[in-house]
Amino acid sequence: xxxxxxxxGFVCTTAHPIGCEVNVKKQIAYTKxxxxxxxxxxxxxxxxxxxxxxxxxxxxxAFGGNASTIGIFFEKPETEKKTGTAGFYNAMALDKIANxxxxxxxxLNGDAFSDSVKKKTIKLIKEDLGQIDMLVYSLASPIRxxxxxxxxxxxxxxxIGKTYTSIAVDTNKDLIVKANIQPxxxxxxxxxxxxxxxxxxxxxxxxxxxxxxxxxxxxxxxxSYIGTEITWPIYWNGTIGKAKKHLEYTASLLNKKLxxxxxxxxxxxVLKSVITQASSAIPIMPLYISIVFKEMRKKGIHEGCIxxxxxxxxxxxxTKKTLSSNIDSENRLRLDDWELREDIQxxxxxxxxxxxxxxLKELSDYSEYKQEFxxxxxxxxxxxxxxxxxxxxxxx
Length: 396
Ligand code: NAD
Hints:
Elements: E1 7-8, E2 11-12, H1 17-34, E3 43-47, H2 52-65, E4 68-73, H3 86-100, E5 105-109, H4 115-129, E6 132-137, E7 143-145, E8 152-154, E9 164-170, E10 175-181, H5 186-196, H6 199-210, E11 214-224, H7 239-262, E12 265-270, H8 277-280, H9 285-298, H10 305-316, H11 320-325, E13 332-334, H12 342-354, H13 360-363, H14 366-376
Parallel strand pairs: 3-4, 3-6, 4-5, 6-11, 11-12, 12-13
Antiparallel strand pairs: 1-2, 7-8, 9-10
Helix pairs in contact: 1-2, 1-3, 2-3, 2-10, 5-7, 6-7, 9-12, 9-14
This protein binds nicotinamide-adenine-dinucleotide.
Enzyme class: oxidoreductase
Pfam family, one: Eno-Rase_NADH_b
Binding site for substrate: 225
């Protein structure tokens, strides 16, 4: 089968296994080039480890810190006629390369919200690692099936209180359009918090504590985004922001609990905006990201997932001195500091008010955005021969 991208709105329904492996290899090469990360957790569980920030975390920890990692994700394997998801191929490639390098790397493909995946994970930790020193919570999902009732809850990406009108880019037509997004109902706000808030993170920590698989001093971190005035109406002040505030509240609860019981800690890490499957689904983010990437590239401070995450683990998470300077008043570790620099944001505002369909590619890195979006699914890479037929069931 010749695999081509099939883009439907903000998703690509096909993925290229070889391209995905190339992406993983590039992140590994970046990590190795930066050098060994000192004082890093050695046995780590990463939830949401097959793409975006979770994948980069796993790569930085394994190839930068020689950590043993267990990755949890929810991805579709291929069938005879349909490719697997990009995350499935990323995770397969990572386990293969890590194992070849002599690193412990195992994955569980299943619903992290379920009790059964929690049980399977605990069993695997007990059998293979004994305990873990860190849990990275990097899950991004539009739905959650509640373990107690089986009910499916859906999250929404909507403003709260009033209709939000803004410019956005139509990524199918490459045009600047007006976006009008109706405010969420109270039920939608509640549901989004149920899906993307801290409820499941807390369930994980409780289950792991009960099973005595968290080592003394174990850390847990969950990823968040805050953004700027441009994105606040749809993100921080919207339904997803409510969920992230609940995640912060959960962090403070877990921090108290873990510090009392095992001298451990829980923190929110605020990361920068990057191109992932999750962020491309958020209205206005593709346009904002195209603009802010150009500005950050101009100043030589551009970061994608692996660069932002490598900085987190190598400079901030374990070094006491710098940790305090990057912790804000809400006890959040800020890795969005470069994106939020005043000079960067001032330029973003100016461009935001002047951008049109005609000057879109000139004023922003929109072409690079499109290229990188395709890359998420293993397409558009010069290293891959896309004309070569692939037998999906022979991919190893
Ligand atoms: P992503 O879409 O690239 O990855 C999501 C991961 O979650 C995948 O591994 C997927 O398999 C996994 N997943 C989804 N549902 C699951 C389930 N039910 N069970 C198990 N695994 C499941 O997402 P991302 O953009 O890397 O986001 C990860 C975290 O980083 C989120 O908390 C997000 O808010 C945060 N973050 C993202 C950005 C950004 O710009 N993308 C910025 C800052 C913070």
